[in-house]
Write a structure and sequence with these properties.
The complex is a heterodimer of chains A (about 800) and B (about 290). The longest helix of chain A has 19 residues. Helix content of chain A is about 20%, strand content about 15%. Chain A has about 800 residues and is α/β, with parallel strands linked by helices. In chain A, strands 23-25-24-29-22-28 form a 6-stranded mixed β-sheet. Chain A is built from 19 helices and 29 strands. By secondary structure, chain B is an alpha+beta fold. Chain B is built from 8 helices and 11 strands. Classes of the chains: A alpha/beta (about 800), B alpha+beta (about 290). At the A-B interface, helix 2, helix 18 and strand 25 of A face helix 1 and strand 4 of B.
Chain lengths: ~800, ~290
């Protein structure tokens, strides 16, 4: 989240899209209702289904799965053609005025720089136009034809209400009714927020969906302001913390970069990773990258990280093959992966195309599952249809503590790191994750010491200074993450103290300041709220630097006066900024630099040359779609996707549309938490069985009865369960044809109190062009009633 | 429970009024803020140690088809169309704790159903004879008979928690504050505020459901579409004394007599010594 949970209460309009917080974030969702109930905020859901969130919303709009960019692009056009943007904000805080180079173009679904042979873009054609001094040319009138503002207008001019309706399936009138509400916050006295989740990320255009939302919010002047923002609702209680600490492939803790093979020295890695300012007046905070990176190496390798060995840079792996989810399982499927350690998730049920995953798992020599519960991925060889006698994989199951049985911190969606105490003791014989991982480390290290071996330096050099080196405490780890001055031993109070000369260490620069000498800030529980906006600076600690709203400099105008005095993020009083922890120096005067301190532009990017699939989001169909792409038939889907071998054959082909006519989407329900709650009797009782949601009209057509059994199948697999025949999914008219949507929940498998079909039998093995996140949310199926057995 | 002042007892003359002023509590369910998460349903089962029942999806998000002796609170899900728009009506179904409880009036077993001064209506299973008259007497179809124990069960408003100064488990659990708890007076004024808010949000017929026919209830609802009470499975005009049971008053005196001297003597004791002795009626509840 750019903002935080409680801040949702400050919004005038709450758009929920690509998320279903009533279902998946019921506790946080109360703040949306608080906004509705105390500010008369309008709560809008846009979703393929009328959800439990929609049940309490003011408005709901049904769209086809995978048509999000068309809808959001339609909003961008609606804002620009009706002049609803927050003009002063856009001029002051975005790159609307930046001029793009002449090589940039967009034609017939392709941006400039596309290489047919590699299916990749040469992003250099999207670069800014630079003046001789090296800085970007700007036109503050926003009139220049190659200004970002004009290019946006031109790009989204095609996204007329007619087109939006044709692609998404909603009616023009309904779109316009919703657009009027959502786009009503482009003024100083109104603010709107967007809540999204994996309903956006799990598409082949996931990153670009979120970018489109960012464009909407920037045009409306809603980023950086209390009550505004783009707010990602994270999955489990600590997914944000896990991401901050590098659970995502391609990053190191604190969003530092994994070294590339071409970066053969520390200097070359730092040079490639440290951005140069594009304008004179930017803080360009990522310019501090070397301090963060070297301090991290010091935290990991301690005294073994010295200037003469490039601070241990060569101990780090240089990742040639990306290690995203799909790539890992593709390697396994090819028989190139020997073993797999799964910790903290159900690696079988959580991936797309379960049959393919099962084939891949059966090719592993060994698999280790570390989890509080025995689960499907540890017993994959028992899955329906598997022949255990033909599987050689050795599976080791290590029972570990549940989070309720250990202390530590959770970082919630709003970036608040909150320390928690252990609630109950673990069962006898169950070990903590830290014990298991420490033992793994020590036993490998001891093997190296006893027997020697190739490339032992990284293991031999790893710092492991804990009171009990076989099981570090969470407090020790938190302090190590916070970092310290290596000369004095003093723990740091901010990442502003980090140095690139090796005199400081920090396991994750973002968390520097969470555990200073003053004590564990994450454990604070002061409830005062002097801002009146729910910031609660004395409650826990949020990164960075206990800031509650990111980019909060943009909550004020160029002179530092808040856009809305009743919802002031930070305000300049002539000497210093007051309010939230400013993302500007506390005494840095308003005009000194751009509001968006993390970008080399100093402002927010409406146009971003950093993504693989284009600088301006464009609607591409899901890889399995019931329609042609009416914007450009020749380029129907994201042109730069990574296609693993043998995957095209697992997708419904264009001429197969009659065989798989229905878009399908998968999701969770509030009664269950992913797969772990299949062990909790009361929750199984509350939502016992796998089910399929079938629209009433389609059910009538197909003779499907409510409560009867149905079979749903895709090109990849099938599921069977109880039909919930519902009015909550209506027919859509997509490109002139009636389209019905099917819905399937994910929580079932073959282990647990009740068993049921695995939703991911159906889903395609293909991911987002930037993140590799699989396209779980939009694919094609067919459905039929099943005769009752017996 | 022994410290709670009693207002009415089944098949028994009303106790002498106490001199302590007892707050009258109420639970307010704001349907417009309920997301149907079933947190309350599960909390109810956990707090009251109700056993897990095997369930099966029957074409709904609803967990059980109906309330039971082991499920005192059920979230009901109904899809309806109103003025061309789909509405998903999600309603918390449980005992409403009537001011004029039909179950208590119908009950022939002395002491089996009590109404406390705080408004809670509770079944005392020690004295329940399993006749199920309360089931018939309830205008909301709430109490459920258990064939194994031959007793009737329903929500007791977590009377043990309330006595200890806590809110009922469902209230405590509700993540969206859709369930509120407080004095009846405060809940009525909160309901009024919520109804005004709904009108402000464009709802044409929001109402507070606190039906006069049963003297009002200690679980009330704020109903967004008050002109569609039937869709919420709420009777429009519930009354405490359904006609077919008018002769019951006489019957239950006889029933009480037949129950024997033991019960009668405690009743006499109660009537002569006063409410304090009501302890004797709840020996297992300490």
């Amino acid at each position: 989240m750019t903002n935080h949970w409680k801040d949702i209460k400050n919004a005038d309009v709450v758009l929920v899209m690509g998320a279903n917080p009533a279902e998946n974030h019921p506790c946080g969702f109360k703040w949306a209702l608080e906004a509705r109930n105390t500010r008369r905020a309008q709560l809008v859901t846009i979703d393929p289904r009328f959800t439990r969130t929609s049940a309490v919303a003011d408005e709901h709009l049904q769209i086809r799965p995978g048509s999000d960019i068309a809808l959001l692009g339609g909003l961008v056009r609606y804002i620009l053609t009706n002049n609803l943007h927050h003009a002063d904000y856009v001029r002051a805080h975005t790159n609307a005025s930046f001029i793009i180079g002449e090589r940039f173009s967009f034609e017939d679904g392709l941006f400039s720089g596309f290489d047919e042979a590699t299916s990749q873009y040469d992003a250099s054609t999207w670069e800014y136009d630079r003046a001789p001094d090296g800085y970007v040319r700007r036109d503050v009138t926003l009139e220049h034809p190659r200004s970002v503002f004009q290019l946006l207008k031109q790009h989204y001019d095609r996204y007329t209400p007619e087109r939006v309706a044709q692609i998404t399936g909603c009616s023009e009138e309904d779109f316009l009714r919703i657009a009027k509400i959502v786009c009503s916050t482009g003024t100083a006295d109104r603010v709107g927020t967007i809540m999204y989740a994996v309903g956006w990320t799990m598409h082949t255009v996931g990153t670009q969906i979120i970018r489109t939302a960012a464009i909407v919010q920037l045009l409306l002047g809603n980023i950086g302001r209390p009550g505004g923002g783009i707010n990602a609702l994270r999955g489990h209680a600590n997914v944000q913390g896990a991401t901050d600490h590098a659970i995502v492939a391609g990053i190191l803790p604190g969003y530092l970069r994994v070294p590339q093979p071409s970066q053969t020295s520390l200097a070359s890695h730092l040079e490639a990773s440290t951005p140069q300012p594009l304008v004179r007046d930017t803080a360009n905070y990522w310019g501090n990258y070397p301090k963060f990176f070297v301090s991290q190496l010091k935290a990991w390798f301690g005294d073994r990280a010295q200037p003469d060995n490039e601070f241990g840079y060569h101990y780090l792996g240089k990742m040639e093959e990306d290690a995203t989810w799909l790539s890992i399982w593709d390697q396994a499927h090819q028989g190139k992966l020997e073993g797999f350690i799964a910790l903290g998730f159900n690696s079988l049920l959580a991936g797309p195309n379960v049959s393919r995953l099962l084939e891949a798992m059966a090719k592993l020599k060994w698999k280790v599952v570390i989890d509080p519960f025995m689960m499907d991925s540890a017993e994959f060889w028992k899955a329906p249809g598997m022949k255990p006698s033909e599987i050689d994989t050795e599976v080791l199951y290590l029972p570990t503590t549940h989070w309720i049985e250990r202390d530590g911190s959770f970082t919630n969606s709003g970036r608040w790191a909150q320390w928690k105490e252990k609630a109950i003791d673990a069962p006898i014989g169950v070990r903590s994750d830290t014990w298991i991982l420490s033992e793994l480390f020590w036993r490998v290290k001891e093997l190296y010491i006893a027997e020697g071996g190739a490339y032992d330096e990284p293991i031999q050099s790893l710092t492991w200074n804990y009171l009990n080196p076989r099981e570090p405490t969470m407090t020790e780890l938190a302090q190590e993450i916070n970092g310290s001055d290596l000369t004095s031993g003093r723990r740091l109070s901010s990442f502003g103290e980090l140095k690139e000369d090796g005199s400081t260490a920090s396991g994750n620069w973002l968390y520097s300041g969470s555990y200073p000498e003053a004590g564990n800030q994450m454990a604070r529980r002061a409830t005062e709220d002097p801002t009146g906006l729910g910031m609660h600076h004395g409650w826990a600690w949020s990164w960075p630097l206990n800031r509650r709203v990111l980019y909060n400099r943009a909550s004020a105008d160029q002179d530092g006066a808040p856009w809305d005095g009743t919802r002031s993020g930070i305000a300049w009083n002539g000497r210093e900024w007051i309010g939230d922890v400013p993302d500007y120096g506390r005494t840095t005067p308003p005009g000194a630099m751009g509001a968006f301190i993390m970008t080399e532009e100093g402002v927010a990017r409406l146009f971003s040359p950093l993504l693989k699939d284009g600088p301006i989001p464009e609607h591409y169909e899901p890889v399995e779609s019931p329609t042609v792409n009416v914007l450009h038939e020749r380029v129907p889907i994201n042109p730069v996707l990574r296609w693993y071998d043998g995957i095209r054959e697992t997708l419904a082909q264009e001429n197969d549309r009659h065989a798989y006519p229905y878009p399908c989407t998968i999701y969770r329900v509030v009664e269950r938490e992913h797969f772990v709650t299949s062990n909790v009797p009361y929750l199984v009782e509350a939502m016992p069985d796998f089910f399929v949601e079938v629209p009433e009209g389609l059910a009538a057509e197909k003779g499907i009865e409510n409560g009867g059994q149905v079979r749903v199948w895709s090109r990849r697999g099938e599921v069977q369960g109880t039909a919930i025949v519902t009015k909550r999914i209506g027919p859509l008219t997509v490109n002139g044809r009636t389209v019905w949507t099917i819905g399937v929940p994910v929580h079932w498998g073959f282990v647990g109190i009740t068993q049921g079909s695995m939703a991911n039998e159906l889903t395609p093995f293909i991911g987002d062009a930037n993140t590799g996140c699989p396209e779980f949310k939009a694919f094609l199926v067919n459905v039929e009633a099943v005769e009752k057995r017996g | 429970m022994s410290t709670l002042s009693i207002k009415r007892i089944s098949a028994t003359a009303s106790p002498a009024p106490g001199i302590r002023s007892t707050p009258e509590y109420a639970k307010l369910v704001d349907i417009s803020s309920c997301i149907g998460c079933k947190g309350c349903e599960v909390a109810c089962k956990e707090w009251n140690d109700l056993k897990v029942e095997p369930t099966a999806n029957f074409g709904s998000y609803q967990s059980h088809k109906d309330l039971s002796a082991h499920t005192w609170l059920l979230m009901r899900f109904d899809e309806v169309e109103m003025s061309g728009r789909v509405q998903w009506l999600i309603k918390k179904d449980a005992c409403l704790h009537c001011e004029d409880p039909g179950c208590l009036s119908a009950c022939p077993a002395p002491g089996a159903i009590v109404q406390y001064e705080n408004g809670i209506v509770d079944i005392n299973h020690e004295h329940c004879i399993g006749c199920q008259f309360c089931v018939t007497g309830c205008p909301f179809d709430i109490p459920r008979f258990d064939k194994e124990t031959k007793k009737v069960y329903k929500c007791n408003m977590c009377v043990d928690r309330v006595e200890a100064g806590l809110e009922p488990a469902c209230v405590k659990t509700c993540p969206t504050h859709a369930i509120s708890w407080g004095s009846k007076e405060d809940m009525l004024s909160l309901a009024e505020h919520k109804v005004d808010l709904l009108k402000d949000r464009g709802f044409e017929n929001p109402v507070t459901y606190n039906p006069a026919g049963v003297g009002g209830t200690h679980m009330m609802y704020v109903v967004p579409h008050g002109n569609h009470l039937a869709d919420y499975r709420l009777p429009a005009n519930p009354t405490a004394s359904p006609l077919p049971l008018t002769g019951l008053g006489v019957l239950k005196r006889i029933g009480a007599y037949l129950l024997g001297v033991g019960v009668l003597s405690s009743l006499v004791h109660y009537l002569t010594i006063g409410p304090q002795a009501a302890e004797d009626l709840h020996p297992h509840d300490h």
